[in-house]
Amino acid sequence: MRRAKNPTMAEVAAVAGVSHQTVSRVINGSPEVRQATRERVEAAIDQLGYRRNRAARALVTNRSGLIGVITVGAALYGPTSALTAIEESARSHGYLTLFASVTDDSDTQFRSVLDDFLDHAVEAVVVIAAREPLLDHAAAATPGVPLVVIGPRPGQVADALCLNIDQDAGGRLAVEHLVGLGHRRVALLHGPERSVDAEQRQAGALAACAAHGVRPTEYRGDWSVGSGYLTGSSIVALPAEDRPTAVVAANDQMALGLMAAFREHGTDVPSDISVVGFDDAPEAAYYSPPLTSVRQDFRALGALVVDTLLDCIRGGSPTPSLLTPTLTVR
């Protein structure tokens, strides 16, 4: 079936009874068009089914309207939520996102994706550095366009703006909440090694424990429900006098596994043991029992990333910053 030809700007102008320059101003949101004229042009656009040719516009304006986003582990809650928030915020500003998930830690794959983005004339690049190797690749990159890296602390990557939700502060929040409830025997279920967020959450939780004179029992998970379940089974197998009375899990999925193991072994949450998660994923409110969790505002992070990039694109000099997490107590 032959596709109908896309109407031209000149045809829209003819139907609306205006110049093609006026049509261009309406399409690009210029305030220098009277409301009645704008409405006439928009009606002509709807009538003809006109679609703006982004490629042609890019040639004229030297602006592609594209932002490239690179991540690893896109199936995980944090990177997925950050990506969605960035895409929504970018779209609200008239930008589209190109997305690529690298599947290994090689610099070759990262460089290939970055080169593909630059071949598409992206105006900026975002790297969601969920793992340390991606952080290293971002530090070595010189894309020639504004670069934002989500994950590292401000100033950790030269020639890039580092933005994130303060993971260290989140780890502290979780421990301080439990200490405030009177807990002294606390276990920490950390995320995987070489995970940027996991290491920062771990550092914050350990610092809070040290500040309150708490000597935590430490476990290592891999973000999965299964690793939380195995840890929970190990905890309930401890002698009662050695068993922690509270656990901080580095994400909500591992917290879910912990609670499943505790329930299976007759250990009540929160009467026998308290659990705090991290992320405050939407389903956390429906866990049994509902989960207290450190909340990350990914929508605010997405808006911050896009606003920062647009500031750079327009010649500004924004500064790196961290958003403050909160604790949702249930």
Automatic annotation (TrEMBL):
Domain HTH lacI-type: start-end pairs: 7-61
Keyword list, A-Z: DNA-binding, Transcription, Transcription regulation
Record-level Gene Ontology MF annotations: DNA-binding transcription factor activity; transcription cis-regulatory region binding
InterPro entries with a match to the protein in the record: HTH_LacI, LacI/GalR-like_sensor, Lambda_DNA-bd_dom_sf, Peripla_BP_I
Source domain of life: Bacteria
PANTHER family reported in the protein's UniProt record: LACI-RELATED TRANSCRIPTIONAL REPRESSOR, LACTOSE OPERON REPRESSOR
Protein name: LacI family transcriptional regulator
Organism: Corynebacterium nuruki
